[in-house]
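User: My instructor asked us to take a sequence, write out its structure as tokens, and then describe one feature of it. I'm not sure where to start. Here is the sequence I was given:
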Amino acid sequence: MTDTTAPQHEPAGGEPTADEVSEQKAVRLAKRERLIESGAGAYPVAVPITTTIPAVRAKYEGLEIDTASGDVVGLAGRVVHARNTGKLCFASLQAGDGERIQAMVSLAEVGDESLALWKELVDLGDHVFVSGEVISSRRGELSVLVKEWTIASKAILPLPNLHTELSEETRVRNRYLDLIVREQARQTVKARATVMKSLRSTFDSHDFLEVETPMLQTIHGGASARPFVTHSNAFDTELFLRIAPELYLKRAAVGGIERVFEINRNFRNEGADSTHSPEFAMVEAYQAYGDYNQIAALTQEMIQNAALAVAGSHTVTWADGTEFDLGGDWNRITMYESLSEASGTVVTPETSIDDLRAMAEAVDLVVPQDTHGKLVEELWEHYVQHTLVQPTFVMDFPVDTSPLVRAHRSKPGLVEKWDLYIRGFETATGYSELVDPVVQRERFVEQALLGARGDVEAMRLDEDFLRALEFGMPPTGGMGMGVDRLLMVITGLGIRETILFPLVK
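Assistant: Let's start with the prediction itself. The structure tokens for your sequence are:
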């Protein structure tokens, strides 16, 4: 017996043309009708599997060449390669995780009629059940010598060529095809699941409780972002999709859940690019009697534990082969000092708006809402952000851009906030939380004035949240981190690759 891994009937390019799809679909629909009319069916409710492709590979990986195991199995997989010869047909069956095994359909084992039907009815992409003995072929290919077979699910559309890379547009629009044909896509899904498990494990080790907060809210808050707006027919009221869970998690902290976290979906009606998606996943956590220094240490631990879970080391390997070290203690810099050093101009909380405007104009920066804080942050992003490839906590932000953050304990005009930058983009943020309800009301009023002047990202005044604070919230450290961006750090991919089904236009 001989075998081959050469594909059969695959399109020449990465993706079949519209005419090829139409032609193949018509042929496959006809085969579907034949299967239904024969009584075998094209989509049986179940097939008698006894094991899986990964299990067989694990058990018999070392089987000697041209050897029979004596073990008869029933398994199923998707046909991704095939070659039909006179008395012997070969097919590579792929499991959902990408593991493959060869099916050998021979005249001697299945008979004339069954072999003829295999050649006529089985196409690339079909799910097929095979039953037979596990053997190693003359080329050492682990195989099932088929005694019986049946279609488990007939594919009506052809697969892309498995040897030609799909375009990025096809990958994100048709993730199901991406998962079938590309190992990296499957590995990214596994990495994301591993990261989620690791995050929860780290929180559990520090006695945090996981909760769920509303996605539909009557007042959006917890971040400076433009919300999606919807309407409830039942309540006849305007509602907003959550931009952040912060204000509800803080309500939980007021109620006595002193270490609380949530892994959630957030929605921001803003632009989409390589680091932003309108719908994204975030982990957010609050620790009573902690501050922004303690929550920074926890965030570093979470990310390093996630890297260890995925890569087995704090050094991760990106999709392009680059190794990136997330180990050790991460650098901490301050916003004002790093901006002063990079720009060559001393910038402090006392620097006037006119001076900051002049600095912005000198580098052609346009800042529509040119408050002191916004000017400082835009200038910092221009001069410093792109230089922060290695993990770096940027500490101590302007007060007017951080309405939910406690004033700095020793530096007037600043708040105790950090942003964590890795690979040049913000990955997480953390605060010493503002828990004084009087000051919080003042900050909300300032935000309302910004909103009245046209700032669509300004927060709204939330009376119920303020009332909760008036019952007393303990000193608290809080953090939020984009899960998609954490995956970007670990895998080296863009945000559309780390989200399983990203929103695309």
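For the description part of your assignment, you could build on this observation: DSSP finds 16 helices and 18 strands in the chain. Try explaining in your own words what that tells you about the chain.
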